[in-house]
Amino acid sequence: MAYLSVRNVSMAFGSLIANDDVTFDIEEGSIVGLIGPNGAGKTTLFNCISGICRPTAGTIHFDGVDITRSPACRTAGLGAVRTFQVVHPLQEMTVTDNVMVGAFLRHRKPAAARALANECISLCRLEDFCDKRAGSLTIGTKKRLEVARALATGARLLMLDEAMAGLTSTEVRESVELITHLKAKGLTLLVVEHIMEAIMPIADKLVVLDGGKKIAEGPPETIIRDERVVAAYLGAKFSRKMKSS
Ligand SMILES: Nc1ncnc2c1ncn2[C@@H]1O[C@H](COP(=O)(O)OP(=O)(O)OP(=O)(O)O)[C@@H](O)[C@H]1O
């Protein structure tokens, strides 16, 4: 069985089908991009995998464990952890204390939690901000803090929901570097992203949703040529640009 196995997952909110019979696999150590137009069901699928929503049908296995009905705390404890599109750091606490909140999921003793937090802080290049109040950070730094806090929980599968939205081009580049660095460290990443120039070069595979259904899955070079994806999301102009670059 794949590291993450999503099988025939559907999620309905009343009569609205946000995810419709979605199936895909993620191999350990890979980067998978989850893309699609607004309202396609990407965040809902993240919520189903991370235990925030319970799918109305289908199964989800992580590292051989059935997490279909696991609450978020159990799923995170197993190592499948998500970040949020809108970041919510504990504004009045310092960067170190925010990351320690994640680390306390692994370690009860403050010294051990602090050591793990410091490792994650340096991995996310936040050393210069350790004593700063989280509320005082720029959006780009807050997003890195969100990643550091998720890592500190002991994430092995890290799910990033639009980690690059609202960032400057320099911050987007830094975020891409961080994601590839985390992959090199052995993490598996599932990334929801609208910035195609950022996700295309680093993803091993893309899964494309539209109207709740999976319409395509494959390596980026195949996806940019897929007529359904071009029609539903990428647009012909963008697809030509990516093919020629
Ligand atoms: N809690 C909810 N209750 C009712 N409808 C919901 C709920 N959450 C999501 N939806 C609906 O499900 C559909 C999919 O939404 P979702 O946020 O998963 O899409 P998305 O692909 O993440 O969109 P975006 O790219 O804009 O973030 C939308 O029609 C949305 O309005």
Topology:
Layout: E1 4-13, E2 16-26, E3 31-35, H1 42-50, E4 57-62, E5 65-66, H2 72-78, E6 80-82, H3 95-103, H4 110-123, H5 139-152, E7 157-161, H6 169-184, E8 188-192, H7 196-199, E9 205-210, E10 213-218, H8 220-223, H9 227-234, H10 236-244
Parallel strand pairs: 3-8, 3-9, 6-7, 7-8
Antiparallel strand pairs: 1-2, 1-4, 4-5, 9-10
The protein binds adenosine-5'-triphosphate.
Adenosine-5'-triphosphate binds next to strand 2 and helix 1.
Keywords: ATP-binding, Nucleotide-binding, Transport
GO molecular function: ATP binding; ATP hydrolysis activity; L-isoleucine transmembrane transporter activity; L-phenylalanine transmembrane transporter activity; L-valine transmembrane transporter activity
Organism: Desulfosarcina widdelii
* Main β-sheet, spatial strand arrangement: 6-7-8-3-9-10
The total tally of domains equals 2
Distance from first to last alpha carbon: 36 Å
Order of helices and strands: EEEHEEHEHHHEHEHEEHHH
pLDDT averaged over residues: 93
CATH topology title of the largest domain? Rossmann fold
Shape: globular
Spell out the CATH superfamily of the largest domain: P-loop containing nucleotide triphosphate hydrolases
Radius of gyration: 18 Å
* Helical residue percent band: 25-40%
Strand content: 15-25%
GO cellular component, one term: plasma membrane
InterPro entries: AAA+_ATPase (IPR003593), ABC_AA/LPS_Transport (IPR051120), ABC_transporter-like_ATP-bd (IPR003439), BCA_ABC_TP_C (IPR032823), P-loop_NTPase (IPR027417)
Pfam families: ABC_tran, BCA_ABC_TP_C
Domain ABC transporter: 4-236
